[in-house]
């Protein structure tokens, strides 16, 4: 006869507990991995949108010189962009005129929108650049 003290191996309860711990650990690792993959995709999307915005800002000199006020387009049918230009005045009152000989600035806004994994996302880039038309008479 076998006595209870001479048993070798694990009981069913011990195996079930060990299996449950292993399943919970794997589930947590899967969750961490999927969050990392999602974050990586999101980072790549923001990176592409930022490069598009910087590229559009680099093109603004020629667009302003041609008299464009707004322009829009898309990149890879995923990223939709819009560039708008307006005169910038540091003076609060609209009737105040700038002193002669001052630098004329353009307020440039670039907005890029795209549909991400879970929702629509966008970035907006604002900058001030000198109006290139004021330098045409100098050149």
UniProtKB/TrEMBL annotation:
One of its GO terms (cellular component) is type II protein secretion system complex. It is found in: Cell inner membrane. It is a single-pass membrane protein. One of its GO terms (biological process) is protein secretion by the type II secretion system. Pfam families: N_methyl (PF07963). The chain crosses the membrane at residues 12-32. The keyword Transmembrane helix applies. It comes from the Bacteria. The keyword Cell inner membrane applies. Keywords: Cell inner membrane, Cell membrane, Membrane, Methylation, Transmembrane, Transmembrane helix. Belongs to the GSP I family. This is Type II secretion system protein GspI. It comes from SAR86 cluster bacterium.
